[in-house]
Amino acid sequence: MNAHVNLVSKLAAMSIAATSAALAALPAQASVNDYRIKLVNETGLAIRAFHATNIFDPDPGPNLLWRHMLPPRFSAVVDTDDASGVCLFDFETVLSSGHVIEDRAVNVCDTWTYRIAPRMPEARMPS
After folding, report:
1. Distance (Å, rounded) from C-alpha 56 to C-alpha 42?
2. Which stretch is the leader sequence (predicted)?
3. In terms of pTM, does the model score above 0.70?
4. CATH fold group of domain 32-116
């Protein structure tokens, strides 16, 4: 009986050691990325909506401000994580004037603060 217990203990220890070695060899996964970014409104107008869509998704993402408006000189933290593991996102900011500011292929995995500044020559009215 004692030999059986020792054998089971040895097998369990070997299994734990093998599992630990295998886990240590795995590369870091993309899921450790933090997709939250701080939006800073520097436009002088309230922001009515902010959409972030990964570059492979043809559909616009949801309004990450929900039903809230972001007043000028204020900031808000939003989570752009769509569970895709993609780091490049297209941003669309809708101002209270109706103008839309677009920014393409923003790397949300490397962006901590995103400043929304007036870019009226690039802004367009919604269709």
Report:
1. 28
2. 1-24
3. no
4. Immunoglobulin-like (2.60.40)
